[in-house]
């Protein structure tokens, strides 16, 4: 086995952040090679390392994996965060995909033109408060267990907790009416691996500021 | 085990079509309850059977599954279309996800305003010809096998052939320069199950037309 996984992306959350969270939660050390310029991206493309000319790309176990879901599915399987059987996997997938739909709107917020930011933020708040968070609160209420699926930590819990933090950054009172989500967040945040990841100095990335957005736009334009 | 899976969706391709192709390939019968009106959709929502108030939804093995990928992954696992181990699954996922990106454009372009629609069609053709199809031709060339992963039919092959048919509706010659994709398309199309699915009278849906666009807008209010 080669060594630590290497994450290829720019120095920002974007589509790589859920991968960082999942590896961190699993206690897996990883390295990051940040794209800083268009040339960095061009080099990866010319090397033939990016199947569809896009990042994220993760070098892991001899593979150069692209496509966020392929990467997350592999890590989840490898580190037993994907349930115990097909049916648990189906629930985990259903829950993860719902979070991914919300994340798609959230991760774009820093990159949306200034005049459209308010509308996008309203959309995030509406969907989080009225569609997604109630659905997960209902799941937890339904079985009364500590985790979403199979009474055991899975990638769905990790991804959900990540989104709870990210949405709260944009809508500070969003969790007010979701006690079970708050409890899940506390529980997952207290796991030693996640606790470490939440501390300053970890590989967790901050909300993308203007400088970061500018840099990303330059690389990918 | 309850019975045949039951699909809840519009009578159109949309996000359900790749599920229809998948089950067709493995010869698994399923039933469909079509949503024809906004009232049909609202009834499903108020019944509490749609976790995120959205379709596709498939009733299978006692579950009411939503989210296309959750549905596809479950059927793929159940019917051995997901490789033999974690690493094969990773490749199958990578290939499937690339195709899903192209399919996303294909699903949405009929709803584009004029002008935008033509631009997106051109973009899709460009991406198919220069990004996606070359990548899959390269995979087939690299191992010389009959299927994309593990020398065995997987969901990736089915999604790829479905996309080839889709793109050929926009440009009949789109895989003219991809001999291995042509061979894969023929190989899959000749499978008795797929052959049957490709014939009139199957559960395969036709391309969406103006009427279909208007109907969708009415049902989903957009």
Automatic annotation (TrEMBL), chain A:
EC number of the protein: 2.5.1.18
SUPFAM superfamilies documented for this protein: GST C-terminal domain-like (SSF47616), Thioredoxin-like (SSF52833)
UniProt-listed PROSITE patterns: GST_CTER, GST_NTER
Domain GST C-terminal: start-end pairs: 85-207
Enzyme class: transferase
Keywords (A to Z) from UniProt: Transferase
The organism's place on the tree of life at top rank: Eukaryota
Gene Ontology molecular-function annotations: glutathione transferase activity
Single Gene Ontology BP annotation: glutathione metabolic process
Catalytic function, reaction form: RX + glutathione = an S-substituted glutathione + a halide anion + H(+)
GO cellular component, one term: extracellular exosome
Protein name stated in the entry: Glutathione S-transferase
Organism: Cricetulus griseus
Automatic annotation (TrEMBL), chain B:
Domain GST C-terminal: 85-208
Gene: LOC100753770
Residue stretches making up the GST N-terminal domain: 3-83
Keywords linked to the UniProt accession: Transferase
GO BP: any one term: glutathione metabolic process
GO cellular component, one term: extracellular exosome
Protein name, per record: glutathione transferase
Family that this chain belongs to: Belongs to the GST superfamily. Alpha family.
Organism the protein comes from: Cricetulus griseus (Chinese hamster)
Highest taxon of source: Eukaryota
Gene Ontology molecular function, alphabetical: glutathione transferase activity
EC number: 2.5.1.18
């Amino acid at each position: 086995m080669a060594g630590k996984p290497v994450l290829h992306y720019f120095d920002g959350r974007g589509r790589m952040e859920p991968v960082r969270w999942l590896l961190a939660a699993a206690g897996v050390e990883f390295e990051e090679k940040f794209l800083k310029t268009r040339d960095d991206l061009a080099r990866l493309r010319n090397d033939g390392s990016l199947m569809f000319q896009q990042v994220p790309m993760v070098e892991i176990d001899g593979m150069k994996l692209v496509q966020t879901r392929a990467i997350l599915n592999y890590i989840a399987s490898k580190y037993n965060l994907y349930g115990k059987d097909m049916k648990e996997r189906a629930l985990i997938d259903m829950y993860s995909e719902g979070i991914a739909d919300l994340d798609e709107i959230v991760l774009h917020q820093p990159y949306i033109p200034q005049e459209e930011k308010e509308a996008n933020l309203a959309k995030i708040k509406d969907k989080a408060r009225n569609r997604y968070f109630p659905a997960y609160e209902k799941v937890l209420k339904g079985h009364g267990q500590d985790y979403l699926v199979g009474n055991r930590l899975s990638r769905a819990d990790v991804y959900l907790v990540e989104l709870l933090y990210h949405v709260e950054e944009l809508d500070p009172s969003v969790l007010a009416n979701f006690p079970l989500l708050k409890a899940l967040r506390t529980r997952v945040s207290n796991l030693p691996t996640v606790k470490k990841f939440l501390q300053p100095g970890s590989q967790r990335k901050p909300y993308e500021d203007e400088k970061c957005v500018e840099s990303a736009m330059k690389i990918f334009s | 085990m309850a019975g045949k899976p039951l699909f809840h969706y519009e009578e159109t391709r949309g996000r359900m079509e790749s599920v229809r192709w998948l089950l067709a390939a493995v010869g698994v019968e399923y039933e469909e309850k079509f949503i024809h009106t906004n009232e049909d959709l609202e009834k499903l929502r108020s019944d509490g059977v749609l976790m995120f108030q959205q379709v596709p939804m498939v009733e299978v093995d006692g579950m009411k599954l939503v989210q296309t990928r959750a549905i596809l992954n479950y059927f793929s696992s159940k019917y051995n279309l997901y490789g033999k181990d974690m690493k094969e699954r990773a490749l199958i996922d990578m290939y499937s996800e690339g195709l899903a990106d192209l399919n996303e454009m294909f699903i949405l372009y009929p709803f584009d305003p004029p002008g935008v629609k033509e631009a997106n069609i051109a973009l899709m053709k460009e991406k198919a010809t220069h990004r996606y199809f070359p990548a899959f031709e390269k995979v087939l060339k690299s191992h010389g096998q009959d299927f994309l992963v593990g020398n065995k039919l997987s969901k990736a092959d089915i999604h790829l052939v479905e996309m080839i048919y889709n793109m050929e509706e926009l440009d009949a010659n789109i895989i003219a320069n991809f001999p291995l994709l042509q061979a894969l398309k023929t190989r899959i199309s000749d499978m008795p199950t797929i052959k049957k699915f490709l014939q009139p009278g199957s559960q395969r849906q036709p391309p969406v037309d103006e009427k279909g666009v208007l109907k969708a807008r009415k049902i989903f209010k957009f």
